[in-house]
Write a structure and sequence with these properties.
It holds the Pfam family Pyr_redox_2. InterPro entries: Class-I_Pyr_Nuc-Dis_Oxidored (IPR050151), FAD/NAD-bd_sf (IPR036188), FAD/NAD-binding_dom (IPR023753), FAD/NAD-linked_Rdtase_dimer_sf (IPR016156), Pyr_nuc-diS_OxRdtase (IPR001100), Pyr_nucl-diS_OxRdtase_dimer (IPR004099). Keywords: Cytoplasm, FAD, Flavoprotein, NAD, NADP, Oxidoreductase. GO terms for molecular function: NAD(P)+ transhydrogenase (Si-specific) activity. This protein is of the alpha/beta class and about 500 residues long. The protein has three domains: about 25-170 and about 290-365, FAD/NAD(P)-binding domain (3-Layer(bba) Sandwich), CATH 3.50.50.60; about 185-290, FAD/NAD(P)-binding domain (3-Layer(bba) Sandwich), CATH 3.50.50; about 375-489, FAD/NAD-linked reductase, C-terminal dimerisation domain (Enolase-like, domain 1, 2-Layer Sandwich), CATH 3.30.390. The protein has 13 helices and 22 strands. The strands form five sheets. Strands 1, 2, 3, 4, 5, 6 and 17 form a seven-stranded mixed beta sheet that branches. A five-stranded parallel beta sheet has the order 8-15-9-10-11, covered by helices on one side. α3 packs across α5 and α3 (about 70-85) runs parallel beside α6. It is globular.
Length: about 500
């Protein structure tokens, strides 16, 4: 997760603040109120520290709440409900809750949830006595942040013994692409005036493939283009193959190993030209070219810091930058750039700043991808175990074998367990299908406690539930281990 190794202390520190340095107005100032910044601020406040958060007026909750995670995941739930996707296996492929789904139908739920989440963030900061300074922050020196007020709020300056940078990212926009009403990025896709009949998704990363699956579920003819030869290369190949099969069933086309040369748009639609010469017509293009760290306006050089070409800040142990009292957390430091991991990074940074013991379980952080269906995994994968010559066995459960899978109408889902053949430890869990991002935590907890597959064999799980997949997969793995022992005797 860290991008480079950085010494814990510089050779000469002009002022090394102690845990209760009262020469500054605050013990901690956090720039950004997304998941990482919010949790850093609250963690420090729980330790009895004086804390303030600097955030723009219309971005309380950060990118996560306003333009990223919360809008996209709420949109996904609205799509699943209104299209009746989960019921089609039972009631037929033509089943829909609403015949003509409009953007307004989708956004009604999205705007409601965003509003509620913003209020939750404000209330949590208020309840923990964290000051909210409204405006855009930039460094004056390593301990001073100048805040340019917006929305009628005054300009001000705050000083702090410690600083956490949690400014997040924005969609990267290549100069070669002219964005407009028909060519949008991941922020603009939720502002489309209507559900398009056809769409090109340029970029098959996590964000691109999530939106591709949502619009495919709405009935949009989606073409996914990516210069990489395969999707989601960090995921289990069998799970990715299952996702591709499902998306092809929704009429999604894939142009992998292809690079976008140009995108032309007019009032009628768009034409995307690939480097191979192929031309793809579509009503709309969603260009998903990765994310850019929002650090260009921070004046990092005045704090003794710098960012790479993608606006990311390098960190070392416990998310310290090369300036020991300044930390960076969340998407602005790069991979894995997930809300869940950002929250923990913020907590760890605050604890480290004030001498509180921390335990970082980075190796067991789950990855969740909110495609339709979901993908989630935790622990190690088959390719990694094979490369490290770790002996393992695979146990698989298919949702179609579970009563609950039939009830919820998910015939595609699967859960895979990777088990050490000698110690019987659970090494990894990979889930595809309904509630995958929830189910993964059972395996995560067992791995975190050093548990074995025998626990899952011996324990009793509620019936009928999707959690029962763990029992089925565990029995599958142990039966294979038993067969090896019998035939190898």
């Amino acid at each position: 997760m860290t991008t480079e190794s950085i010494p814990a202390e510089p050779a000469v520190a002009p002022h090394d603040p102690g845990p209760d340095d009262h020469s500054y107005a605050y013990d901690l100032v956090v720039v950004g109120s997304g998941p990482g910044g919010q949790k850093a601020a609250i963690a420090a406040a729980k330790l009895g520290k004086r804390v303030c958060v600097v955030e723009r007026k219309h971005m309380v909750g950060g990118v996560c709440v306003n333009t990223g995670t919360i809008p996209s995941k709420t949109l996904r739930e609205a799509v699943l409900y209104l299209t009746g996707m989960h019921q089609r296996d039972v009631y037929g492929a033509s089943y829909r809750v609403k015949a003509d789904i409009t953007v307004q139908d989708l956004l009604a739920r999205t705007q409601h949830v965003i509003g509620r989440e913003v209020e939750v963030v404000r209330a949590q900061l208020l309840r923990n006595h964290v000051d909210l300074v409204v405006g855009s922050g930039r460094f004056v020196d390593p301990h001073t942040i100048a805040v340019s007020g917006d929305g009628g709020n005054p300009d001000t300056t705050v000083t702090a013994a410690h600083v956490v940078i949690a400014t997040g990212t924005r969609p990267a926009r290549p100069d070669s692409v002219e964005f407009g009403p028909r060519v949008v990025d991941s922020d603009g896709v939720i502002d489309l005036e209507r559900v398009p009949g056809s769409m090109v998704v340029a970029g098959a990363g996590v964000i691109g493939i999530e939106y591709a699956s949502m619009f495919a579920a709405l009935g949009t003819r989606v073409t996914v283009v990516d210069k990489r030869p395969s999707l989601l290369e960090f995921c289990d190949p069998e799970v990715v193959d299952s996702l591709k099969f499902h998306l092809r069933d929704l009429a999604v086309s894939f142009r992998l190993g292809e690079e976008v040369r140009s995108v032309e748009a007019n009032g009628a639609g768009t034409v995307t030209t690939l480097a191979s010469g192929k031309r793809i017509p579509a009503e709309t293009v969603m260009y998903s070219a990765g994310r850019q760290g929002q650090t260009d306006s921070l004046d990092l050089e005045k704090a003794g810091l710098n960012a790479d070409s993608r606006g990311r800040i390098a960190v070392g142990t416990n998310y310290r930058t090369e300036v020991p009292h300044i930390y960076a957390v969340g998407d602005v430091i790069g991979f894995p750039a997930l809300a869940a991991t950002s929250m923990d990074q913020g907590r760890i940074a605050a604890y480290d700043a004030f001498g509180e013991p921390v335990r970082d379980l980075t190796a067991l952080q789950p990855i969740g991808i909110y495609t339709i269906p979901e993908i989630s995994y935790c622990g190690r994968g088959e390719a990694e175990l094979t490369a490290d010559a770790v002996p393992y066995e695979v146990g698989v459960a298919r949702y179609r074998e579970l009563a609950r899978g039939q009830i919820v109408g998910d015939p595609y889902g699967m859960l895979k367990l990777l088990v050490h053949t000698e110690t019987r430890e659970l090494l990894g869990v990979h889930v595809f299908g309904t509630a995958a991002t929830d189910l993964v935590h059972i395996g995560q907890a067992i791995m975190g406690c050093g548990g074995t597959v025998d626990y899952l064999v011996d324990t009793v799980l509620n019936y009928p539930t999707l959690s029962e997949a763990y029992k089925v997969a565990a029995l599958d793995a142990t039966n294979k281990l038993r067969a090896v022992a019998r035939f190898g005797a």
